[in-house]
Amino acid sequence: MKTKIKPSTFPLGGIHPRSLGFNTMDNEIKNADLPHFVSIPLSQHIGVPANAVVKPGDIVKTGDVIGESSGFVSVNIHSSVPGKVLEIKKGYSAIGSMTEMVVIEFEGELNMSRTGKSPVKWKDMSCEDIIKKIKDMGIVGLGGATFPTHIKYSVPSDKKITELVINAVECEPYLSADYRVMLEKIDDMLIGIEIAKKLLNVKNVYIGIEDDKPEAIQKISEAVSNIEGIEVVDLQHKYPQGGEKQLIKAILGREVPSGGLPLDVGVVVSNIGTIVAVKEAVVDGKPLTERVVTVTGSIVKNPGNYKIKIGTMIKDVLAEVGLIEDPGKIVMGGPMMGLAQYNDEMPVTKGTSGILVLSKKQAKAYHHAPCVRCGKCISVCPMGLDPTLLCTSIELDRAEKAIEQGQNDCIECGCCSYTCPSQKHLAQTIKLGKLRQIARRKGEA
Ligand code: SF4
Ligand code: SF4
Fold this sequence. Notes:
By secondary structure, the chain is of the alpha/beta class. The chain has 13 helices and 17 strands. The radius of gyration is 21 Å and the shape is globular. Bound molecules: iron/sulfur cluster (2 copies).
């Protein structure tokens, strides 16, 4: 498979966000300082929260299960440090929802429960056993969606998957955690791909990388040059190419239908970090207790890519990297889709790809002006929506109309808000419309 697949980017909308220069691409992955305390949410994934299986006073080792999955769409949660369980409390997670958290005080030696065991011969394992292992080890999508990976790889019997697409795009500005993983963990990535191929029973794998990462394209292309069925696809740099629908369109030219999933067009998309986590879970028996996070921003003294224990508080991370001044805004994730935090008392979770710290000047609130009907938001929408029309429907509480106009097709990429000369809160309003719809469904509104 040497022929380059066309097109090399998605055709509809998209933007090229301007760079503010917080580049961490050359910063190798560094272990963050060990935290004195961790606060580990029992809900860090899409689906049902895990049930606590520890109580205050219990002693845990790194990798011990502290929350057991409580349904099919759920995964285990593990202790990221050895120590004593201090309390189980309710608290807000980075996405703003109330969840139970297990607070552990670090004590003892940092070693995994299975240290000393040799790697598992995964090729001898059945698909069922591999899927169970992935679930037990708490693996979820590390691109930010946190969808349980065992479900993604359990394809319904009426669906046939023909391609596995590895999402190595990382199109959010300033984030480089995936980039460093793809440079530093190529061997693990290749084993993870083989495991995913077995589970999905696919022969064709495409690794999508944008052309602003030539070193990764070259290194991975060399690594796969003698492996049949794996191709690196260099894509034009454009946001939001990391969206599953945009990536599938860019690499395979296929359109995921409205309300549909990639598997409806025979594709499974996995983030590069997830693929490495799958290898570590299945072969090394390593649960998801830490992840690589890009910590950057105009006032960060030592920006970089840090491997951080899940449950570490943002304030501890910021104390380590150092700040030039008090932050004006802390964003979990990238500047386009990340979530601004109320304070620095939030833990790093499985879905935290970045921590962006902005100065007070950068974070200054801005006020939107009336729509000038320029149509820019429509031209950049990668889903072909009319954001201004949608927002009007939501603002007027015409919920049914907003749904008709494609509210649920919105991928919340923020391109419309970014480009609007009137600085209207378009993406935020659409998100609000979706939240209202969920609340109505639950009978809360
Ligand atoms: S946030 Fe939604 S409406 Fe706005 S550009 Fe992205 S997909 Fe379109
Ligand atoms: S970009 Fe802003 S000003 Fe232009 S049409 Fe859309 S909402 Fe109106």
